[in-house]
Amino acid sequence: MKLRTKSMWMAASFAAALLSISGVRAQSQKDGTLQPVPPISSTSPVAGGGYGGMPVPAARGVSSAYDAQMYDPSQVEPDTNTLSGAENLSVGSLQHARNVFDPSVSISSWGQSGIPGTNGQTGLHATSLVGGGLNFNRSWSRYQFTTSYRGGENLYYGFQKNMPFHDVIVSQDISWQRWKIHLRNDFAAAPGASFAASGMGGAGLVGQFSSTLGNAISSIGQRFQPNETIQTYQAMRYRDTALGEVEFSLSRRSVITFSGSYGLLHFTDAGYISSHMLDFQAGYDYLLDSKNSIAVLGSYGKIDYTGTSLSTTDNMANLAFGRKITGRLAFQASGGPEQIRLSGGGNGNLQLWTWSVNSALTYERRRSGVSMGFARGLSGGSGVLFGAKGNTLNGSVHHQFARFWTGSANGGYAFNTSLAPVGATTINFNTWFMGANMGHQMGRYMELGLNYSLLKQSNPAVCPVAGGCGTAAFQQLVGMTVNWHLRPIE
């Protein structure tokens, strides 16, 4: 209980610190301040990419939840993320107002089967989720402050105890002359793994909210945040990622980026492996033309496991290629060798060589869009293993059938292998999920959604942790959600 309170205070303190930074910066504005190096705009026939540009609003599509118009690429703000940064490239941000305060309330009712820890029952149990969200955006001069929150209470009606979940993202962007500073903190508390949104309403419901929180969840690279792609029994866990990034524009075509993050994964229930991690990355980007760029980057990471002397470290060098067309396309691919070391074990140190990969694609049209990503490399083991080599694939598609009818589907697959010498026996987990939803806008601020989620995991013969691995039965969730946006203040 003390750790839970401490974690909440840490998240609150970080948000307060960013707010104080925003206030001080706003008061320090003076006339005559030097302007940053102008970006090479992707909308210009000369060149593109956005290096040295003004910060892009981070709250994507805050008006789309209550504005039933087709997506218009010409209204999209260019993306300024770099290939060597911690966050993936995007098609840009759709921001109708610079200052937004947008609260919402949601109520969901489902039938749910295969809940971990209920002896593999297959019948549907009535469950509900009562929650809400907040999207706050404040832009002025060279500064951008954004907060996105979604949370609620899972109600299980007696067959097990009710459990809460919270997910809050706070970010601050500062741009000054050739410099850009990005600060971000992601905090989550949930009774299930973030992969497939277990304990957060399932993949189908998260797909419905993808215009606000969903995009933010997947935008940080896998190596910069605690991994949760292995399902466990329902166990409350806290996940926090504090990220800092500095960019310096050498010219209109080149930029160097330095990133660092601290991650924490803590389980309140006994029998699972808590961990904390540090990651550092540096890289150099160069714009080939208005749409294409290349980069070289190197990184170092370390993961320590609470209550043990075990730790894993990795060193990685990557080459990367990216292509961006504002409002339409964002593609990136990077890869290179990765050295993994496991130290502190009873059998001595272990050293492995593998290939690390990070790739992502987003493609948008007026009525439809698709996104997918693949990542390979070292992970913290999701609270089940002392480090793992992970392969994660995910994707989503959405379509606007009519002015007030939209639909989407998403899915993912993760394969995790324990760290072991070449030729030795390993512990493997295969996890996949899919989700779908159909939404109907009712009036200007209310939406009715039908959601479906399916999850399956193949476990080893013996679970490596006492807390228990996720059930091998199919986990299904089908139901309805009403999402009501209060009148937003712009």
Task: Please describe the structure with a list of short key phrases separated by commas or semicolons.
single chain; 490 residues; mainly beta; Porin; 18-stranded antiparallel β-barrel; 3 helices; 9% helix; globular; disordered N terminus
From the 3D coordinates, which CATH architecture would you assign? Beta Barrel
Q: What is the strand tally? A: 18
User: What does the largest sheet look like?
Assistant: 18 strands, antiparallel, barrel
Question: Roughly what is the average pLDDT, rounded to an integer?
Answer: 82
Based on secondary structure, the structural category is: mainly beta
- What's the total helix number? 3
Number of domains: 1
CATH class: Mainly Beta
Encode the helix/strand succession as letters: HEEEEEHHEEEEEEEEEEEEE
- Give the CA-CA distance, first to last residue: 38 Å
CATH topology name: Porin
Provide the gyration radius in Å: 22 Å
C-alpha geometry: globular
Query: Approximately what portion of the residues adopt beta-strand conformation?
Result: over 45%
- Helicity, as a percent range: under 10%
Please mark out the parts with pLDDT under 50 across 5 or more consecutive residues, or reply none: 1-66, 211-217
